[in-house]
Amino acid sequence: MSTAGAPGPVAAAIAQKLSAAFVPVHLEVRNESASHNVPPGSETHFKVVIVSDKFEGAKLLDRHRVVNSALASELSGDVHALSIVAKSPSQWAQSSDVAPSPKCLGGSKK
Amino acid sequence: MAVVMRARLALALLGVAGCAALHPTGASRLVASRAVPRASRARMELAQAGAGDANERIGEMIGSNKIMVFMKGSKLMPQCGFSNAVVQVFNSLKVPYATFDVLSDPDIRQGIKEYSSWPTIPQVYVDGEFIGGCDIVVEMYQKGELQELAARVSAE
Predict the structure, then answer these.
(1) ipTM of the complex
(2) Where is the stretch described as Disordered (chain A) (predicted)?
């Protein structure tokens, strides 16, 4: 689930909350903190890829809003970057490309 | 043509590693604080930087700029990869857009999150309407939707 080793507690909480809220048919929680200007082992930068029936017919902005809402406590805590790919199963069937997250520029200290 | 532009953008998005050392945060703060109108700053001091004042200033910015980007750093020196990606997208569209560096102003940095009910930076407004952050802007660009929207509002 995370890029290296077992998922940390924050990644596990993100996965658990998204599973409960959206019953996804596909879910990835990627800890991308290692690419950023934070200490090793940090859980600050994440990308989630989530595919759920609940996104069917929902606008792009609304899909992102509900994912942000589900993770509100994480986002107001230690997580300060969250990249979201949220698709319905039919959209996922059309394209399962996940663009790489932008590289860190080093200035986004919390 | 579109394919070439997209390929160039992809390079721009991916080719930003290693720039951080060239971008001391102090420099960008200096640039950004100059961008805050003197009147706004004076008013902020009077109001002791209250939340109401931040909302008013945000409203003025998104009301007076067809495309308004709240970001970390400036167009020339983005301080975050997500902010940089948004700048690269709008630069490639060759449309006028304004930016505000939230690192220069903690009231706006917090205020914009509440104003938009959106937890992260960057945030993009087009024609007074909240569009979303980096993921959404890039996805709209890849679908060609952002080009249409930007061309429409810039022509008005």
Answers:
(1) 0.87
(2) 90-110
DSSP lists the bridge partners of residue B71 as B101
Q: How confident is the model at residue B5 (pLDDT cuts 50, 70, 90)?
A: low
Average pLDDT on A21-30 reads 97
- Which candidate, B13, B112, B38, places its Cα nearest to that of B72? B112
Considering only alpha carbons, which residue of chain A is nearest residue B21? A106
* Cα A82 to the center of its chain, rounded Å: 6
Q: Break chain B into its structural domains and give their ranges.
A: 2-155
Identify the CATH homologous superfamily for domain A9-93.
Answer: BolA-like (3.30.300.90)
Residue B4: per-residue pLDDT? 52
Residue B56 has pLDDT above 60, yes or no: yes
**In degrees to the nearest 10, what's the CA dihedral of B149, B150, B151, B154?**
120
Q: Which two tokens stand for residue A67?
A: 């994912």
In chain A, where are the structural domains located?
9-93
Tokens linked to B14: 């991916």
A84 touches chain B (CB under 8 A): yes
Token pair belonging to A31: 């800890």
- B124 and A CB contact within 8 Å: no
Mean pLDDT of B80-93: 96
Alpha-carbon gap: A108 to the closest alpha carbon of chain B (Å): 6
Cis peptide before A89 (omega within 30 of 0): no
B2-155 topology per CATH: Glutaredoxin (3.40.30)
CA-wise closest residue to A15 among A42, A50, A39, A45: A50
